Structure formats: C-alpha cells, structure tokens
Recover the amino acids of this structure.
C-alpha cells in the first residue's frame, strides 16, 4: 500500500479529478495548501507597503492506493496537472503499513476499494 | 422649495448611492474568491469614474435642455447647478440624485464580464459608456427627449437603467467571450451571505430609487415605495416555488435573484400602478427571468452573473407590463387594462430603441477600447485570479507569516 | 396629508424592511456554517411568504374595523387600500409599514429552531402563524381590539412583536426538541462579524421601527427614536459589565445580544417615557435576559439562539417597565411613577393574554403542520447540515474544481 | 418646530449611529482575523461607554451654555433635555444626534492601536477621552466656545472630529509603541470585503453626518449631502490613479481609503462650498493623505490603520481648504478665493488649538490609565491574538467538534 | 514510531477526540479536508446549473504515536468514528523515521509524550 | 528522499520560512492545522456556555528533501520555531519512495531542486 500525495495547482483540480475517475481511482482526499518553489514571485500592495507573496495557492491530494495502482495514478495526475510552467507541483509516493476502512474495519486492499454498488452515478 | 421634499430626496440620494456598494456585494459574493475584489472594484470604481464624469458632462448631456436626442452643455462642470429650485428641491440635489443612477447603471453591466476583463479596459469602457450610452438614453426618457415626448412610461428607469444595462451586458459578454473554463467547471458563489447582504441593501436602496423618482415626498412616492416592497415579495415567492417544483429545493441564491428581478420589474411601473397590480406584476415577472436564466446557462453565452435575463428581460417585462397595468388615477397615464392598449406598443418602442442604440453603441465602444488596450488578461492571470495579478491583493488573507515585507517601493 | 410625515414613513418602512435581512445576518452568523443559508433563508423567506399573505388578508385581519378580536375582511386583497389618507400618510403606506412588522415577527421565531427544521414545514408554519397569531394580536393592541381599548400601552410592539415571537419560539423549541448533538457539542457562531453586521443594521432599522410607530415626523417620533438610541447603549454597557464580572472578559456576541435586548425592551416604551427613564429601562432590562440566557443554557431546552430570554423576557420586562416609567407628558399615559400603579397590571394583562394565546395557537399550528409534513429532517441531514440537503447550496464554496457540471436538469 | 426637519434629523441620527458599526467593519476587515473581534469591539463598546457618558455629562460639557472653554452642567443627566425646540427640532433629538458624533470620534482613535491594547485599558481611556477631550473641543467650535466665536468654519467636524481623533491616534500609537512583529511581518487585511462593507456604510452614513449638520432639511443640508457624494468620488478617482502610477495596479483597499479620505476632507467644508469646489477639494485631498500613508509606512510609527494620515491629515487639509474655497453665498462665510485670505489663518488656529490640546490631553490620559492598568497585554497574548485571550471568542469558528462543553461556570 | 492518519466525518470529530483523550492519546493535529469515495453523490443547484458535489467535507487527523500505541489508537478512532454508512473514512498507518519535539529537541518516544504536568485539565 | 512534516505555531511561520530560505531549502508546502498537545487549555465563552478550546491553531509544513538535506532542515525548523513554551510543535521525518516534479516528470533529487534561474529573487 502507498499514499500518493500530490501538490497541484487549484485550477487544475477538476482536470485531475476527472482523469482519476476515468482511471478508476475513486478514493481520495484533498485539502487546501500553499506552496513555495521556483514560482515567479507575486507582489502584493497594502497601502504604503509592498510584500512578496512567497506562498502560492495549491491543492493537496492524498490518494491511498494498492501497489499495482501506483504507477497509473502517478501518471494520471502528472498528465492532468501539467501546464508546463513553473509551479505545477510535486508528487510524493509514501509507503503505508496498513490501511483500514472505518465503516467495516476492512484492511489494506479491501479498504481502498470503494463500494461501487451505491452512489457514484 | 420644500423641506419635506428636500429631506426625502437627500435620503433617496443616499439610498441609491448605497446601492452601488450593495451591487458590489451581490456580484462579489457570486464569483470565486480569487476574483472577488476585482468584481467588487468594478462597482466601486464606477463611483469614482462615472460619478466624476457625470458631474463634469454627463448630467448636462442627460438633463440640460437641448434636442430630442441629447442635452446641450450648459450644465457642464456644474455651471449653474446650485441651490435654485428644480421642482421643489435644490437643483444640485437633483443632479446628484440622477448621478447615483448613472453610477449604478454602468456598474450593472460588469456582472456579465466578471473574472475575465482587464481592469484598465473596463474603466475606459464604463467612462465612455456613461457618457455615450447612459446619458443620452436618460435624456430621451427623462430629459425632454423623444421617448418622453412620445409618452413612454418609465417611472424609475426600467428602460433607461435595466434594459439599457441588460443589453450592454449581453453585448459585452459576447464581445469578450466566455471565461476560459466556462462549461467545464461549475462556478459556485464563494460567499452566499455576501450575496444576501447585497440583496438586503439593494432592496432598501431601491425604495429610494423608485420612491425618489417622484422627486418629492408625495403620495406617489409612497405608492412607488410600497410597490417596491410588494412586487419583489411576490417575485421571490414565485421564484422559490419554481425552484421547489423543478429541484424540490429552494436556493438562497434563487430567492436573492427573485428579489432583484422583482425590483427590476417594478421599476418602470412603480408610481403608475396600484399595489394589487404590483403584486401581480411581481409574480408574473418571475417566469421569463427564471426560465431565461435556465436557458442561458445551457448556452455558450457566458453572461456570468445573468445580467441579461435578470435585468434585461426583467426590465423589458416590467416596461411592457407598465403599459398593461398603468392607470391614470395613480398618477401616470392609462395602460391596456384601463383601456389604452396602444400604451403597450409605446412601451415597446422605448424598449426597442434602447435595445438597438445601447446594443450597437456598447459594441462599438468595446471594439474601440480593444484597439487601445486588450480587453482580456492573459490565460495565466485568469487561472490564478484577477485579484492578485490586477490589484495586488487578496480578498481574504490568512495573514500569518505567508508574506514578507520588501524594503522599498511599489513597482512589480 | 403631510409630505414630511409621508417622507418619514417611507423611510421607516424601508428601515424596518431592512431589519429582516439584518435578522438573517444576526441569526445566520450565530449558527454553524453548514446551516448558515438555511437559517438566513428562514428570514428571507418570511419576506416572500408572510409579506404576500399580509397584503392578501393579514392586513385586513389586523387593521380593518371588526370585532374586539379580529378585523373583518374589507381590506382583503388590498381592496380600498389606496392613496387616501390614513392619519397624515397614504393608507397604502400604512399597510406596507405594518407589513414589515408581520414579516420580521414571524422571522424572529425561527431563531429557536435553527439547524433542525424541515424548510417546507417551516414555510407552512410561518404562513399560518402570520395570519392566525400575529394578525389577531396586532388587532387586539393596535387595530381597535380589546387590549388597546383596555389601555395597554405598547408603543411599537413589545407585546405584539417580541412577547408574541418569544413565546412562539419557546413552544417551537419544545415541540421540535433539541438538536441531536445538543448538550454534547459547543455550537459556536461561525461568523461573529456577520452577527455584528446584523446588530448594526438592526439598530439602524429599529429607529424606523420605534420612531415610525408615531406614524408621523413628530416630536414623539423623535423621542421614540432617541430612546431607541439610548436604551440599548445602557443595556450593552451593563451587559458587558456583567460579562466582565462573571468571566473577566467581554464577548462581542454578548455586546450584540445586549444591544438587541435593549432594543426589545425599549420597544413598548419608546414614545411614552423620557430619555433618562430610557437609560434606566435599558440598564435594568439587561439583568433578566442576561441571567435568563445563562439559565436557559443549563437546561435541555434548545431555544437555539435564545429567542425566549432575549425577545420574550426582554419584551415582558419592557412592557411592564412601560407601566412603571410612562408619563402622560411624553404623549402616552401615566404609569406607576407618575401615580398610576394600575397601569402595570394593565400591562401585565396584555402580556399574559399574548403569552396564552400565542403559546397555545403556536402549539396547535405546529402539531397541525406535523400531520402533513414531518417537522424535522432525518438524522443524517442534520449531521451533514441543512444547507446542502435542503437547499442544494453551500454558504461558502471554495469553488475550485471540487464540483463538476451535470449535463442536464435539476431533479436530485 | 418642523416635521420635515424632525424627520430628517431622526434619520441623520440613525445614519451617524450606523457609522460606528460601519467603522467596526472597516477597521475589523483591515486587521488579522485573530484580532478581528477585539478591533470591532473597540467601536461597538464606544456606543455603550461613550454613548452613556455623553447622555450623563458629555452633552452638557459640550453644548450647555458656559464659558468659552466648556459648558456648565445644567444638562447633566439630561435634565431639561426634552421635547422643547432646539432650533426647529426637539432638544432631545439634537442631543442624540450630537451623541452619535462623540461615539464615533472616540472609536476612530482605536484604529491606531489595534492588535495590541488591553481592552479594559482601552475602555477607561475612551470613557475619559470622550469627556475630557471630545466634549470641550466640541464646545469650542459648536457649543458657543472661543473657536466658534473667532469665526472658525467647521461645518460637520473636520476639526472637532477628524483632526481631534487623528492627533489622539498619533499620540496613542506613540505611547503604546508598535506591535511586537511590526516591521518584520506584512499585516494584511483578513477580509477586504468587510472593509468595503464598512466603506459603503460609512459613505451612506456620512450623508447624515454632513447633511445633518445643517440641523434642518434645508438647501444647505442638500448642498452638504451632495458635496459628500461628490468629493469622495474625486478623491477615490485620484487615489486610484496615484496607485496605478506607482504600482501599475489599483487596490481595493486603496479605493476604500480614498473614499474615506474624501469624506473626511469634505466634512468641514460640506455646507460652505459649491459642488465644483467640492470636486476640487476632494481631488486635492488625495495627495497629502496618499503620500502621508506611504511615508508613515516607512517609519517605525505603528499607527496601524493610518488614522493620522487619513483622518488627521485629511481633516487638516479639509479645514484649511474650507478657508480657501468657502463662499458666503452657499451659507457660511467667505474664504480666500472669495476674497478673505485671513479665513485660512483662522482655520489654522482651530486646527492648531485642537492639535495641541488633544495631543497633550490624550497623552496625559493614556499615561494616567497606564498607572492603573497596563496598556498592553503580555507578548504571548499578542502572538496568539486578542480575540481568544481578551474576549474568549473567535471571529470565525469552524464549529465542528473542536470544542467540548464544560459542565459549569465561566471563570477562566 | 508511526503516524496514524485518519480521515473522518466532521460531525464525528468530538466523539473521536473524546475517545482518544480517554485512551490517553493526547498529541494530535487535525486539518480540514474534503474527500471522495463511494458516498452518495449530492447535488448542488446554482441558478440554471446543476452540479455534482464530488467532494464531501471531512476532517483529517494526524497522530504521531510510538509503536505500542498504534493498535489502541487505530481501534479507538475506528470505533468512535463509525456510523456504518458509506463515507466513514479511512485510517492510514505510515512509518516514521524520526520525531522531534521542537520545544526541547527531544526525539522519538519522548517527543510524543505530552508534558502531563501542565495544562490539559 | 524524505518528507519532513513540521507542526509549528502560526506566528512563527515567517521566522521559519526566512530561516529555511537562508538555508537554501526552497521547496515546501504549508497548510493550516489545529493541534492538541500539552498546551494550557483556553476557554471560550458563548452566551451561557463555557467551552474548552482543545485545539490550537497551528501551521503544518511539508518539505520534501533529499537525504543529505534532512539534518539541516530539521535543525533549521527546530531553531526558528522554538519559543520554549509548551505548544511549539513537532517534526516528523517520513521516508518517501519516489518524488516526481509534475512539470517535467523529473524524479527524486532532481524533482525537489527548485529551478533557481527564474523568479525567486
Ligand atoms: N521540496 C518540496 N516539498 C514539498 N512541496 C514542494 C517542494 N517543492 C515544491 N513543492 C510544491 O510544489 C509547488 C511547485 O513547485 P515549484 O518548484 O515551484 O515548481 P516546479 O515543480 O514546476 O518546478 C510549490 O508551490 C510547492 O507547493
Ligand atoms: N483511497 C483513498 N485515499 C485517501 N482517502 C480516501 C480513500 N478512499 C476514501 N478516502 C476518504 O474516505 C472518505 C470515505 O470513503 P468512502 O470510500 O466513501 O467510504 P467508506 O470508507 O465508508 O466505504 C472519502 O470521502 C475520502 O475522504
Ligand atoms: N503525537 C502527536 N502527533 C501529531 N501532532 C502532535 C502530536 N503531539 C503534539 N502535536 C502537535 O504539536 C503541537 C504542540 O504539542 P505539545 O505537546 O502541546 O507541545 P510541546 O511539543 O511543546 O510539548 C500540538 O498542538 C499538536 O499540533
């Protein structure tokens, strides 16, 4: 099991989600983040003051996947999130010892397979 | 001159003035937070740009005696606009009251092109639009121009303000083209409470907009104000029911939109129809705009905040229904129900003239502005949001730590 | 008819109209963000539902001549409500002014049952409540009914509006029962700035509420307005001190609550007592409501936004103190201090009658509504929040990407 | 007594009352969210503290007959302040109208010391300041004191309100010293929409502030109100242009600041100059404050929200320009352009006297308060934010789960 | 050392916190998240538009624990966060190489033992 | 490759960022968090109610670094974020299997070296 953590541009989130769903990766969590990297620095004005905005808005995805899915997930995110300009973000692949599904207590691979029967129409 | 009328009209001026910030909140809440300040600045900047130009020449174009088409320049730079009476109030107050109308009408247009227009291009556009489009149309109807002479009934600006802004918005949305992610992304309002705040303040201000158009603290002012209370209530109720029937839920944005549509629709009729007719007019007006918005959102037309269906369609419906419901006993003229069906046609002419003139002129102005400065920012800017790149600000800063101070000046 | 009075009453109408959105912000800021729109819609919807029904029949029930208990239906559908004088203002304006009272009184009740009532059930309830409870009680006091004849002093609605809404709120909170996580979870306001915005606008509007109840731009209107400025200042000051004594800190929500309680308490007395008495009344009124809220929050009674202690208790205290402080020289009648102790008893009768009638009728109405549609949504909906499930909206959307467009219609 | 004047002045009172919450939003939006409630409470608390003390003694000090320096105490506790006429309105209304000025003037000072003052110390300070500084200075100019007798022109408080608050703010910022992270951290506004809301409501209220200072619904009131519409439009426009020239971008906070500076500058001149002069005055007034803010932010002076450059400098410029542009034909006296250059000197004396007295007295008061209670909270409190530690609240709570209920009392 | 990352329903946060504190797990960090899984899709209306809300509000807990505490922590969260309906969330157990307490520089086990003397009454 | 996850006080963020940039650590992401540890409990009042604020505002940094940079990064954060009072936070070092730069597809060490040419002046 791995967790794939991707930091992407917020305006690319819809593309990435769509691509992931198409690739049948349907379990994930996101959160808002801000990042610093090699991006062109933006400047903010507040009255007399000028400030550099060292941090840019990003979105963080955390996707728990079983090992066979790692490659496809990484490639999918990479393709969908890319604009080619500095600031596209990073993907980290982190090893996971154990995954549980809270609802059932199922573990590992079973835990990350969404129940396809209900919902997600 | 009358103290009662003066007091009332000072307040009406303040109330209409407040409508422009209110519009900023209404529009600002509907966009994404990365464009919230840009959207609000489109309204606030109109107070500076259109307001000052109104005092400089716009007022004279609109309200000085002149031809059937425009006023002459005798009041330019407020020459001769002082404390002498205009009706029962000081002339200078009449000028300022009308100025608040010009400011908000220009700001209304912005709703169609939010999240994708260069701010400098926008400023130049509304500066010109206020003088070339708004002022003449105001002259036609209220300044002694041809529509007024023809007998068009427009109590507080259904045609001058709303049809006018609505068609300019349509043209602007078409000229600028859709936002780059339009149709692929659901643009959800970043703050519905802000939308509701705008709605509440707009409604309050609109009592000055419609009631003040009587230019006196008269029974007609009272009637206009009461109708401005009643009609939107009916529109909101119908709107909520339409929502419930279609989706089994009533949205807050829907209720707010319904209220605004009701306010738009009652505007031309406010002092000309009775309160029961106002309720009817409000209820009827819900339908075209409701289904207009539904239809619009199924097209590629990115009239982002639905200015055309809400203000354009709402204004047209209001103008025509004024011709239906008007009754001379309330203070204006008779309409269809009172036995003068031709009034509907007269109303139609007013609408049509405004549609054509404002549509063509807005198109020409935008194309002219585009020659000088590109109307749209680069794609990256649209993606990141206009607040940071066009204004150097964020609507909501987390504040802590994220930003370091530069030791000097302001050039980016 | 008087221009000065007409102008003033148009504005008073606008100000009271603005109080309903203001209440939406006050209440909306106090709840959790997942229920913010539902809470605000409870106020906004009252403008549509109660407002239209008021014009349809409510006004006639309340203000048409009739029995000591209700008016007859001669003004139903606004028949005969036109520009003729009612006092010194147009009749239609009087009707609209009173309508804004009906709208906000119904909306006040919602504070007791936020975050857990089906929206459809709520709409049916306030529709009935406005006609069956509010309109008759208004008739009793102001429409020529028995309480007015008996000599009850209620300048602007301490009993009709606040005691009435307060007891209905209490009953509603009991009938609906507490929120499912009540007592286990601290429900903190999701936006105190929104609460303060509501407070500021309520205070502003309340000058029209109390001052307008003079129905003329008279010295009594001025007195009422001034007392509406002074009393809440005193209440807020005492409230902050009580806060500081108890917890060594002064909360912003406390200051806001104190202001509202002061506004409630001065309402029945506004035009009947002097400014010094207003300060005293405001200061005194802080105590019962402050300790009432403390006590309430230690019970299982989930009167979620403390409508009962703030409006109910505040209204009762104000009504009784009106009987204490009133002086005929200010324009009403004499009270205890001026030598007529019996006035306190008369005030008590008014309060009691309202408590009993509104309490019983509200109970019956809620039970009746429950027969048709369940009052509470399923548990899951309460957990997720009513905004998404009842209204299909979120108050604050991050906007970006999270949501994909469906190709068609709106059924869920 | 006049109904028209009474109606207008009730509303003007309400509008100025609304300016204090508006200021709370303006200031509150500019600070970081961890101090938002503390900042807003500084304005709201002024309504309780300064408002009640105004009624108790402040009004008498300011407006009772007495010496050239202060009034006597004949109106203390509102003795003799009733419905008898003061000019053409009830005396009690005049008292309340003036009270709203005292409240907001004290609140204005708070902008200089946000995010770092103990709330209790602040309360004691403004309580004293309202009586010891504001009331006497008001007496000098408007209450029959020496500045008024000397012929100082101050229509609505450029000197009494803005210069006065501006210098007190400067002194307070110096006495308290800068925030602990000042100069190392960019303090960005946590909510610019809140700032814009404050701006919109301030502008609306300011029509009552300046227009109401005519104390009647007269042509002069209309002139003052119209100038209050026009001048800030010009200031905002110039401000946006200065912004654009310097940074190639126009900020929303800049536009808001420009509007406020324009409002400040027109205040002393509102009823004394014509509308064209108002536009000129507004445009000119942008420069000193714009560059004043730039200069201030390059110093160690942490006048956090720029009260000194905006209100102090803006007030001085307005006061002096009043002496330049005034013309007796509009209702006051003549100024330089109308042939009386000495009026500028008279204006200068008024400014100077206020600077000296308010500066010294504010300093003494702060030092006196510091003897009783430390002015600043401990460092940790400033880091965590004053909302939680001074008020036990957060402006925005996520609400869910984070907090568990204690079973009892409130001591921390 | 492990980090236990749990994605739960926001309305269950109070329950989970209470349960953890009772189980003497007192060091943790949370953040807001949004998740996609097998949940029933909710629909949003905005004027003419209908949209699927693919993401649901969640809360993310990160709990650094020493190895012996892993099991009890996982079980505690699982029990307290469960409703039995789809959407209860996931728990990930991630290996950690090193933990430091910033205040003291203490490492690993010492770093995650809260100073029980002060505060937390 | 490692991810260094630090939970710090929000008011220390500027200091930490400055220190990291000086230490030439320029790639990082942050997000808002709330934490519970041994901090002195704060109390909130809401009308009649008193509540303990079990959670305190924190900021979370995630810094992906290659192995030689781990020590310096940890030390830099530790020094800049310290106040010495309870609540300074924690640092976790988590092993990472793989890092990708979305823009280029570069992996691991190359992926976390910001493009120093552009921007970041
Ligand atoms: N070492 C890192 N650790 C964690 N996040 C990083 C790291 N480097 C970059 N990021 C994240 O990725 C975003 C883009 O990185 P950047 O280096 O600017 O662009 P690119 O990957 O296109 O060269 C940053 O804003 C930040 O959020
Ligand atoms: N593979 C995953 N990686 C990360 N988070 C996940 C993953 N699958 C689910 N989640 C999170 O758990 C939540 C609930 O998951 P879901 O599959 O819908 O429910 P259940 O676990 O009850 O079957 C999601 O909203 C998401 O936040
Ligand atoms: N075991 C843990 N896992 C995750 N985060 C923790 C853990 N312990 C503490 N934290 C985070 O560190 C912050 C400070 O921890 P605390 O134990 O109070 O202080 P200190 O480290 O100074 O003793 C907490 O608010 C929380 O955000």
């Amino acid at each position: 099991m791995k967790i794939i953590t991707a930091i992407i541009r917020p305006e690319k989130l819809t593309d990435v989600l769509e691509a992931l769903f198409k690739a049948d990766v349907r379990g994930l969590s996101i959160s808002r983040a801000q990042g610093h990297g090699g991006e062109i620095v933006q400047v903010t004005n507040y009255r007399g003051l000028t400030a550099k905005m060292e941090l840019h808005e990003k979105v963080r995805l955390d996707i728990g996947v079983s090992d066979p899915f790692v490659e496809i997930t990484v490639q999918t995110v990479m393709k969908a999130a890319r604009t080619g300009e500095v600031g596209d973000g990073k993907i980290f692949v982190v090893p996971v010892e154990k995954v549980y599904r809270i609802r059932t207590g199922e573990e590992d691979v079973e835990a990350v397979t969404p129940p396809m029967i209900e919902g997600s129409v | 001159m009358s103290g009662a009328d003066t007091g009332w009209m000072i307040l009406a001026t303040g109330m209409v003035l407040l409508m422009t910030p209110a519009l900023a909140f209404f529009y600002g809440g509907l966009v994404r937070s990365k464009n919230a300040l840009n959207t609000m600045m489109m309204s606030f900047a109109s107070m500076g740009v259109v307001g000052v130009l109104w005092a400089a020449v716009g007022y004279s174009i609109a309200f000085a005696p002149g031809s059937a088409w425009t006023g002459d320049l005798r009041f330019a730079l407020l020459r001769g606009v002082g404390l002498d009476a205009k009706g029962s109030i000081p002339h200078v107050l009449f000028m300022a009251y009308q100025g608040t109308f010009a400011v908000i009408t220009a700001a209304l247009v912005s709703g169609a092109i939010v999240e994708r227009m260069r701010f400098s291009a926008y400023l130049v556009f509304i500066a010109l639009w206020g003088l070339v489009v708004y002022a003449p149309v105001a002259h036609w109807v209220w300044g002694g121009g041809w529509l007024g002479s023809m007998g068009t009934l427009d109590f507080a600006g259904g045609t001058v303000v709303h049809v006018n802004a609505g068609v300019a918005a349509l043209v602007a949305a078409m000229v600028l083209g859709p936002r780059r992610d339009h149709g692929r992304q659901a643009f959800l309002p970043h703050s519905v409470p802000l939308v509701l705040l705008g709605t509440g303040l707009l409604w309050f201000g609109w009592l000055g907009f419609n009631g003040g158009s009587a230019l006196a603290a008269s029974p007609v002012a009272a009637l206009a104000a009461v109708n401005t209370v009643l009609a939107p209530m009916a529109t909101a109720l119908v709107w909520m029911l339409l929502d419930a029937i279609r989706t089994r839920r009533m949205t807050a944005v829907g209720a707010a939109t319904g209220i605004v549509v009701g306010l738009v629709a009652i505007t031309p009729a406010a002092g000309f129809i009775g309160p029961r007719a106002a309720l009817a007019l409000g209820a009827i007006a819900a339908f075209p705009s409701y289904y207009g918005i539904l239809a619009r959102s199924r097209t590629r037309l990115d009239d982002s905040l639905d200015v055309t269906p809400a203000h354009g369609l709402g204004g047209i419906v209001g103008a025509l229904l004024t011709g239906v419901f008007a009754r001379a006993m309330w203070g204006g003229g008779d309409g269809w129900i009172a036995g003068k069906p031709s009034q509907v046609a007269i109303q139609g002419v007013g609408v049509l003239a405004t549609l054509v003139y404002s549509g063509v002129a807005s198109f020409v102005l935008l194309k002219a502005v585009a020659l000088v400065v590109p109307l749209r920012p680069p794609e990256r800017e649209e993606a990141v949001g206009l607040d940071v790149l066009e204004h150097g600000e964020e609507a909501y800063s987390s504040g802590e730590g994220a930003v370091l101070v530069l030791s000097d000046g302001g050039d980016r």
Observations:
- Residues A 7, 35-39, 56, 58, 86-90; F 27-29, 62-64, 101, 103, 112, 114-115 surround adenosine-5'-diphosphate (ligand 1) (CB under 6 Å).
